[in-house]
Amino acid sequence: MVKRHAFKIGLIGSFTLSAFAHYSGLLSPIVQFAISCVAIVFVAGFLGKATESVAHYAGERLGGFLNATFGNAAELIIAIFLVKDGLFDIVKASITGSIIGNLLLVLGLSVLLGGLRFKEQHFNVKLASHNGSLMLLAVITLFIPAAFVGSLTDGETFNLSLFVAVILIVAYLLWLLFSMVTHKKELSDPIVEHGEPAWSKRLSIVFLILATSMVAVQSEWLVSTLEVFSHQFGLSELFVGAFLIAIVGNAAEHSAAILLARRNKMGAAIEIAVGSSLQIALFVAPVLVIISLFFGHPMNIVFTTFELVAIGVAVIIAKSISQDGTTHWYEGVLLLVVYGILGIAFYMV
Amino acid sequence: MVKRHAFKIGLIGSFTLSAFAHYSGLLSPIVQFAISCVAIVFVAGFLGKATESVAHYAGERLGGFLNATFGNAAELIIAIFLVKDGLFDIVKASITGSIIGNLLLVLGLSVLLGGLRFKEQHFNVKLASHNGSLMLLAVITLFIPAAFVGSLTDGETFNLSLFVAVILIVAYLLWLLFSMVTHKKELSDPIVEHGEPAWSKRLSIVFLILATSMVAVQSEWLVSTLEVFSHQFGLSELFVGAFLIAIVGNAAEHSAAILLARRNKMGAAIEIAVGSSLQIALFVAPVLVIISLFFGHPMNIVFTTFELVAIGVAVIIAKSISQDGTTHWYEGVLLLVVYGILGIAFYMV
Amino acid sequence: MVKRHAFKIGLIGSFTLSAFAHYSGLLSPIVQFAISCVAIVFVAGFLGKATESVAHYAGERLGGFLNATFGNAAELIIAIFLVKDGLFDIVKASITGSIIGNLLLVLGLSVLLGGLRFKEQHFNVKLASHNGSLMLLAVITLFIPAAFVGSLTDGETFNLSLFVAVILIVAYLLWLLFSMVTHKKELSDPIVEHGEPAWSKRLSIVFLILATSMVAVQSEWLVSTLEVFSHQFGLSELFVGAFLIAIVGNAAEHSAAILLARRNKMGAAIEIAVGSSLQIALFVAPVLVIISLFFGHPMNIVFTTFELVAIGVAVIIAKSISQDGTTHWYEGVLLLVVYGILGIAFYMV
């Protein structure tokens, strides 16, 4: 009860403060950026709760679909504003950052902190194996355009990107069909036991709309401070997108996964981290390519070598660690070590 | 019986038509190319039957060896004619296409179509693990010359290629020794239950010689229409070699593997797809390097980056999917998605 | 008893001869190089025995730590002399050679020779899985600086190298903590059953100091003949470092691992080969970066593409072969084939 009140105060307070900072222009860019980051964590949390509540009323199947597709709604909305402003490099950096943040930081902290409490933690290998193949697919489809781009014109590159985007979205929808309809029982692993939802059906829908709008507004404010902020600190857009934006945008996944790991539900923790990065790669990234068409300046799906190295490396080490069905604290260290080295490398570039 | 007659008519008809098209020069290149493709499917099928029949009389051990080495005889013969004409780029493209065609298209269709009939299909993990290591070896040996070629002269590159070729052939022969002699029982998995062979021993040998000659002649005709055809349609040689030639050359594997998958013999289906691509990489490719010596214009074993990316990607995703011993329809989708993306990328380059 | 005397004579004889060759300057560089190689095998063997003996008296935990960190003391000392002379290319080549020598040559010979005696050999998969993840980490951390180095200045490259080095040493120490303290029981697998140590506690310590000094002196002599020798035979420093130095420096691991494989202790053989290469990558390489600071000419941790390809390839094939918990002779052939192809490629470059 107290916790819920604290959340409400944090949400309204940070959002109001952020609005004030944005419209008054009185605060320094650093303060404004910091406030925006805090506010985005709160509004993303609000959107998460509203989605869950609507999903509860929507029934099992549609609810699962809603949860799955709205899970990264905040990242998607932030990215749409970046695409609108033509900041393609930051968009791709933040996609990269979301993937490696989930696979290395979220998973690493979960395995480490869970492993400090339990000597050995177990999970369903079958699910991990399926997710591993999907992650590989995601990496592969991001690598192929980059490998061929040197021999293509800009127009051809975009056409290839569009084709890849459509194929990925179809593959993602088929994956939902597979995991929620045809092979539901085998793989399903309850992630959170919901009690009664906090709100009535009607209120949930109102809140879902409200939360989405707040995320949208807040994302625009955040993006508007980005350039000034990164300039002032001499940070590359790559670093800001891949580390700052990504960590802020994934705050909800972090806390949820770590909490589950500490309760010895390692399977569910892995499911959140891996599932979220899969969704980014197979759904958010291609949707952004298609959306860019409507803004009149098409964005291709070609990532830089640094980004591909980072994503490839993250997938390989996460796959290797999750394939034997058990985790120990040291495997968390390994994931965090790779994240740290990537972080310093991105910072330096 | 009806089926056998239909095959006989198709074989003789398409071959005669193809001969007419070739020598008269009356038909347009497109029609000529189409007829050649149909005819090559039939003569390759004939060669397959003759090989099996001879193998039956040759006894288990020698027969297995014959089946294994003649399995890709059609591809080998087509490629020899390409090597003779100095069309090295198409040779390598068709090797690439054979490998990815088997691992992605044949395997993908088998897993998808088998999976639509059976909810879950199982196979012997041990065999898959061995094949996986061999596939890795094949990829690795194709990558190494490409990685080093930038610092070598043409002569050194060919020497390295020759050395790699000899080592690969030795490795392949040792693999036959391993899988057919020293560790036969554990791994063997009967792919087809043969009834009585259709022909007498003498007739089988005659037919083997006849079929080989027909494949040789037909291959030469096909190759002679290739350049005109690809020019006319504005297709790159890479695309023609890697997709058209490869699909035609592997038609037999396609039908056999899919049939087995539909009968719930997924292990045998995988064995055909993976075994065929292994043979291409570890036996056909090195043999072509050695054969090129006799034509006076040595061909090296260095593949382009695109080809290496395609092969690497195909092996990684096929290995990932086959390593847990079960398949579902969705894994077939994944394989086909990667094949589709590679196809469009090769088409665009 | 006889064996021990033969070793003593070999040690003193080769060391004296090597000293004579070095100081007299009478012998040709080839003879001098050959003598140095023989002598280094003997002094490295002496250092190994002394370490074991001291470890015996130091108690289980400290002893394990000593064995683990002194296991590659000879390589480390040779490398330090190379760093002192600024021969960074040979240092990195010898690190590469040590890693691939252990993973391909030592492991390959063990699996092949063990497999010729026993049809199938088994080992603990869990340990292999842990080691596999660590090997991946090692490869990844060597790849990251190389991927980013194109966009960095020399100073930044060294800073990144230093950062990576410190992180790797911390990760290595945490690995010792994990495998020797928090998760000891599960993973431990006694490698050698020691009888009574040959020497008293005091003598062991004296011998450890003496052996270390002899290795140091002998390494300096070996390094001093290197350049003349490789020049005379037209060998690249890459080849000399990666193959000659590495084979000589790992002679002890070779004999120990093969002996264990022939006694059907495949787990222990793998442990030696993989453990040694892990130590090189995660401990020796970063320590050398830090040591280079004290010599006033900082060495970065950026490897050439050839070296990275070699290391990556070795790790991938070794990981693939060791992940199913059984080995056959043919898997040894695969490892040796990759080693052979890398060898010829390095020789040619």
From TrEMBL, chains A, B, C:
Transmembrane segment boundaries: 31-50, 62-83, 95-113, 134-152, 158-178, 199-218, 238-260, 272-295, 301-318, 330-348
Gene Ontology CC annotations of this record: endomembrane system; membrane
Gene Ontology molecular functions: calcium:proton antiporter activity
Compartments where located: Endomembrane system
InterPro entries, per the entry: CaH_exchang (IPR004713), CAX-like (IPR004798), NaCa_Exmemb (IPR004837), NCX_ion-bd_dom_sf (IPR044880)
Primary subcellular site in the record, as a coarse category: membrane
Sodium/calcium exchanger membrane region domain boundaries: 30-180, 204-344
Keyword field: Antiport, Calcium, Calcium transport, Ion transport, Membrane, Transmembrane, Transmembrane helix, Transport
BP-aspect Gene Ontology terms: intracellular calcium ion homeostasis
Family listed: Belongs to the Ca(2+):cation antiporter (CaCA) (TC 2.A.19) family.
The name this protein goes by in its record: Ca(2+)/H(+) antiporter
